[in-house]
Amino acid sequence: MKAAPRGTRIHRYAVSFFRLVGKAEAPSYVATMMSPEWLGASARYNRWMNDKLYGLAATLSDEARKRDAGAFFKSIHGTLNHLLVADRVWLARFKRVTVPNGFMGPGIRSLDQELYVDFEDLRRERALTDDELTLWTADLTHERLAAPLVYTRRGQKLDPPLWWAVAHLFNHQTHHRGQITTLLTQQGCDPGVTDLFAMLREEAARPSMS
């Protein structure tokens, strides 16, 4: 891939990033560090882990899922809700969906908003959002990842490279799913192996479709 022309926004972001990690110059797009293939794996890992955690949460009572356990979003249910809220906010930004003043995303006013009180509704909508995220990720290219993502937050216009936001989205998911695994373990539910490496090995062991 060709290097970003000097003086452009992309080049300035790249140089700034590499200075942070101890390099003075960035010969090519920083987005090459985050390939579409890597993001595809991240999207699959997101679904793999959500299926695992929702399956375990389904074995608990509604009272147990919603019990305040002192987590940042209080409960298993509250944390699962927050993850869906955040993913939908970012997907709306990625797709340039216009939302009314006072909203962060379609129908979303705050990061602790309870989108779905009923667990089965929440589980169904999580799966639909995972479908949407997987399809959107499949269309990413190096050029799109390096291009600016323009959106407004709290009245301020922001335009970071798209890859910053995508990296944040997948990192944010992992952060809060770690909290959920702890809450499930406290209630006697063993999430088992949660490593990305384990998912990749599982995929590699499947018989080829060709």
Structure explained in plain terms:
- With 210 residues, the chain is mainly alpha-helical.
- The chain has two domains: 1-33, no CATH class; 37-205, Four Helix Bundle (Hemerythrin (Met), subunit A), CATH 1.20.120.
- Helix content is 56%, strand content 3%.
- The chain has eight helices and two strands.
- The chain has helices at 9-20, 36-57, 62-66, 76-94, 119-138, 142-146, 162-186, 196-205, and strands at residues 151-153, 156-158.
- The chain has a two-stranded antiparallel ribbon.
- A hairpin with a 2-residue loop joins β1 (151-153) and β2 (156-158).
- The longest helix is centred in the C-terminal third of the chain and has 25 residues, at 162-186.
Describe the structure using short key phrases.
3% strand, two-stranded antiparallel ribbon, 2 strands, 210 residues, mainly alpha, 2 domains, 56% helix, Four Helix Bundle (Hemerythrin (Met), subunit A)
Oligomeric state of shown chains: single chain
SSE pattern? HHHHHHEEHH
* DSSP strand content: under 5%
Enumerate the spans where pLDDT stays under 50 for 5 or more consecutive residues. 17-29
Largest sheet: 2 strands, antiparallel
Write the layout of secondary structure elements.
Elements: H1 9-20, H2 36-57, H3 62-66, H4 76-94, H5 119-138, H6 142-146, E1 151-153, E2 156-158, H7 162-186, H8 196-205
Antiparallel strand pairs: 1-2
